[in-house]
Fold each of these.
Amino acid sequence: MADAMTLYSGGGNGGSRKSVYRDWYDKMAAQALGHDKIEQVGAHVIEGAQVVRSGGEALITGGILGLLHVELKGGLDAKMGNSLVPVDGAIAALGLGGAIFAANHPTGIATDLRNIGSTALGIFTFRQTLALLGEKKLATGGTIGGTLGPKPKAKIAGDIDEGFAASDIGADDPIVAFARSMR
């Protein structure tokens, strides 16, 4: 058996393996030549490309689901027979399930399906959480933040609708008319 000072030591089946010193030498040479830095830059470039891919797929998926929500009569809740099917939930299930089945596909479509399914699942979860918690908050008299959420509905007969101007409030009410005359 060769000692630790040799660059290569004999392997068990006629091959060779590096000694401890050869491993150390190769690491130092790679650092001196900047191979580690090249590998680090390469990792950043690859990750950047993945971010662009994933972000682009999320952008397209979200845009399409937003378009469907605006254009379909029931929004993202499509009527199928006697029940409502959440379009975003269905796309999430198809995308995530499809990614599992396409795991060994040579085109890498599993990544695309996973990204699309994950984005659709996030949108579905957002809508369901907003509906559930928004209803609870409105029921207790609270208001929902944001401009895209459900708007509070009139809780008492005679409450004003958004179509009225502030000057229309109490126009028929004698008490309001009297109060206005005292200004």
Amino acid sequence: MSVYEKDLMPAVSREVGDLDSSNYRYTSDVLFTAINAGVEEFNLQTPTQQYSVIGTGANAYFSPDPDLTDKRLIVLFAALALINADIAKAARSAISHSNPAGSTNLTQIPVALTRQAERIENRIATAFELKTKGLVDAECSGSELRGAPTEQAEGLGTTNLEETV
């Protein structure tokens, strides 16, 4: 069953806190762009598995179908792309303005967004660790590694050393 990009959009929205259905912050086009950026970043970070997006718009799907862990990583990379774009926008307007009516301080917005980006990066690192552990566990399930320590590996000769006095 094909995994469509539109299926990941709610997860990306949740990841960045865009939950108000009456006033979404990110449009579908922005989410599609972020998911595509997430796929590109995933492909850069994971040379063993590469995904491409086939089709456009609502009919765009991944080839091959990503498993649950890879979908989660693509969502996290997409969320990170959105947060990094917000950091760049907030940094351009990070001002502190004072006047007789009060003051406005927008300098902490990029700092807060950077902390959120760091949390997402930590979650990406954790997901990669779990993915790697799963691959190692699957690789180590061979009988040559599970046997008793006295068994010899396939293809190797046995050398017995005897010492006499």
Amino acid sequence: MTALWVVTVIALVVAVAAWLAARRATRRLAQLSEMYWELKYQHSELKNALSRGAAHQAPAADPTGSPAPAQPARPTDSFVPLQSLRR
């Protein structure tokens, strides 16, 4: 009879340990997912900034010395992270 109680207690301890490990893994997964989407958002922002920077480089002045008129920037598509849609 004592052996059954020992097995029951050991099973309970293992179950609690597994439950705690699962909770830690869930929190870590949420953190990694948030970091992934933030990194993806920052990557697209930098990519857009670089494309805007390459498009807005100073054009060569005309022979009279007057600067060329600035052209308005075209709007570009940008990445929207899923985290902002959940809120």
Amino acid sequence: MANPMYGQNKADDNIDSVSSNLLDYLSGYQGNLLLNGITIDETASAAVVAGGASAAEIIATRLAPGCVNYNTAVATGAGGMYLPKANKGTHLAVEIVGDWDEATAQTIFARGAADAGSSTVFAKQVVGVPNGATGTSIETLGTAAVPTSIKLIWTPAAANTNQWGPGTVIHFYAPAEDVWLVSVYPISEGSGATGALTTSAS
């Protein structure tokens, strides 16, 4: 019999899909996410920050909703990936498979994908994991009522001491239309004392 807590059998589920997705997001649970999300490689990741990304290049790095996605880039150069439309209740994740150990910015775009809409933002929130030695957590921009961050940028150091090492998983959840919450579950390399997270409203 399916466990209604996790919505494995939607016909018998006593918790609606939005609540179930929120519980999954808050706990980092991936069991209700499809495992066949997209895989972003170094070439696709680099193309979207090279200037004037084409629609095809953005599609190649658009994370699939309701799925675990994978990023195999190794951050030899600047790279990026795009979030899909933030329909209320949407949950997705991306696992950092590649070893981001070069000093190049890796950007997560809240908007830019064809279906994302021009008003999508990251909610007012603290993102990242506090570490006194680094800037691995930040507060996003704007106010709770009017958040303004549209990019999250992780810049590792050229060292095997970064907090976001291979196996790091980033979860996204839309508590409202066109708004994303972000939760990072890092697997650190070495001391995990390097890497900086920043945000931008433009």
